[in-house]
Write a structure and sequence with these properties.
five-stranded parallel beta sheet, 202 residues, 13% strand, single chain, alpha/beta, globular, 10 helices
Length: 202
């Protein structure tokens, strides 16, 4: 795999790694960051303690990411924190890999247009990697990682999966990674190929 030491100078880049819970976004993001030498910014890592404490303060369930309290009070703050961290890196000339679901954002042409315009003002390019999976693969990963934030999803799995659209794709041109357990190519190999394309286009 290409490393920061061997990748050389690359074009300033904001790379979003998006997908549903359990799709393997964090692993893909780490692989991409390691291959390119870019900063790794994971929404959960940056904001989880804040989100859990905020939900408790609002008499909500700290592990429920589907309640109105989370969606209206906490989620906007999570993405605001993530994007502010990204912009600060880009302003310092440091490319960044952002890991988060980006479900509503990726399908919102106005949101993506605003982000792309700001990237252009900073002399950066905008890239998106969508980590695709299926219900069985996501369920197995959520069980395996045993994270408290997945408690609601696993306890209400039929309800959760009935409310998601696995055919969802970003409205902008993107790199598609197949991370189903039945995929013919390992995730690391696919992300490495994306990294090489990005570094080669610099």
């Amino acid at each position: 795999m290409t490393t920061a030491a061997t990748s050389g100078t690359s074009t300033l880049t904001l790379a979003l790694v998006a997908g549903f819970a359990g799709s393997g976004k964090s692993e893909a993001g780490k692989l991409l960051a390691a291959a390119t030498g870019w900063a790794m910014l994971d929404k959960d890592t940056l904001t989880r303690p804040m989100t859990e404490q905020l939900l408790r303060a609002l008499d909500g369930d700290p592990d429920d990411r589907h309640s109105a309290t989370y969606l209206e009070q906490a989620r906007p703050l999570e993405y605001e924190c993530l994007m502010k961290a990204a912009w600060e890196n880009l302003e310092c000339g440091i490319s960044a890999v952002l890991v988060a679901p980006f479900l509503s954002e990726a399908s919102d042409a106005r949101w993506t247009s605003r982000v792309m315009r700001r990237c252009r003002r900073l002399g950066a390019r905008f890239e998106m990697l969508w980590v695709d999976s299926d219900v069985e693969s996501m369920h197995e990963r959520l069980i395996s990682r045993n994270a408290s934030r997945d408690t609601w999803k696993l306890a209400h799995w039929p309800t959760y999966t009935a409310g998601i659209d696995l055919g969802l794709r970003p409205v902008v041109t993107h790199h598609l990674v197949d991370n189903r357990l039945t995929s013919a190519r390992p995730l690391a190999e696919q992300v490495e190929a994306v990294a090489q394309r990005l570094l080669g286009a610099a």
